[in-house]
Amino acid sequence: MLYFSPMTVFPKRLQKKLQDRAESNALRQLTKATSLIDFSSNDYLGFSKNKNLFHQAYQLLEKTNNKGNGATGSRLLTGNHELYAKAEEMIAAFHNAESALIFNSGYDANLGLFSSVLQKGDIILYDELIHASIRDGIQMSNAKGYKFRHNDLEDLQKKLKKHQRDTEIYVVTESVFSMDGDSPDLALISKLCQSHKAHLIVDEAHAVGIFGKEGRGLVQELNLEAEVFARINTFGKAIGCHGAAILGSEKLISYLVNYARSFIYTTGLPPHSLATIYSAYLQLRETTDIVQLKRNITYFKEAAKTLGICDIFIESTSAIQCCLISGNAAVKALAESLQQRGFDVKPILSPTVPKGKERLRFCLHSYNTPEEIMEVLQLLATFVKK
């Protein structure tokens, strides 16, 4: 029999917060994996299930005699096994960067970068739709942060002019935004930063593996590598595994090794994680999945136009296509209807997105068929036209 002492009574304020979430139809819950047709995962190229990649990683572990199940400690103590250097050298070369540093996750990378680099008196200007991990990193720093309107370069320029006399100015944006799937004009943002002597930081989480030659990202597609202070590339999306890397100068990487707390005070990734990352980058150079994914994105957009529902989608050329359905209850009901018919499409609720901008988020993959895309959009058209 379980016994709960009075000390385990759940705090009333926390209970109230949970009740508020439930009453607004916004209570998050973990769900089990399903066999539904995938229109929700970030596995854009199918790498997470790629058998060839799995075997390549295993062979690399065998070749390098890495049979450990864990890193045994932080990288500054005992966890810096040889596959780290091998993977970081490949990643830096692949992305035309001076140096690269692997973190345990994209969240850890953003926490470590922004909390350590931003100093007291510095200014950080960030897009209002920037990822939560970047916001958290900024909040942990001693810098002052100011948001600019989403992809609004005029608003960014005003704020750059306002703060141009401050010590250091940083600007951060995403090359593909996770909740809208759209992209900023990185070339113009880069020019603005140069003219105001600001440091540009770009999160490429949803661009790597999709944009640029062999999926090298939007920064490289635009030849902006030398103009970007830091890039954050995560491996949990198109790369199909786990972890992240910050790309930048050797001085930046040295600084992060010394001051990024989310790097210093955590156990390193195990050898098999690094072997998978390394093998995934080899796979990027050989795969035809990127071409197929782009075909599917084009087909999805054309099908939505044919069915007369393109106006309810946010404009995007990425693998993320979002259909605006206002209200948590309405978008949850619509998602459930699609799921009952075999399609795994997830609702994005407020407060994750602003109230009134709730949406269905379609994540497209190289392995989605034209038939699946057309059927799910036909169902959506039927529901929204009722």
UniProtKB/TrEMBL annotation:
Pathway: Lipid metabolism
Keyword NAD annotated: no
Similarity section: Belongs to the class-II pyridoxal-phosphate-dependent aminotransferase family. BioF subfamily.
Matching SUPFAM superfamilies: PLP-dependent transferases
Molecular function per GO: pyridoxal phosphate binding; transferase activity
Species annotation: Aquimarina brevivitae
Highest taxon above the source species: Bacteria
Identification of the protein by name: 8-amino-7-oxononanoate synthase
Cofactors (names): pyridoxal 5'-phosphate
Keywords, comma-separated and alphabetical: Pyridoxal phosphate, Transferase
Record carries keyword Transferase: yes
Positions of the Aminotransferase class I/classII large domain: 36-377
Gene Ontology biological process terms in this record: biotin biosynthetic process
PANTHER family linked to this entry: 8-AMINO-7-OXONONANOATE SYNTHASE, CLASS II AMINOTRANSFERASE/8-AMINO-7-OXONONANOATE SYNTHASE
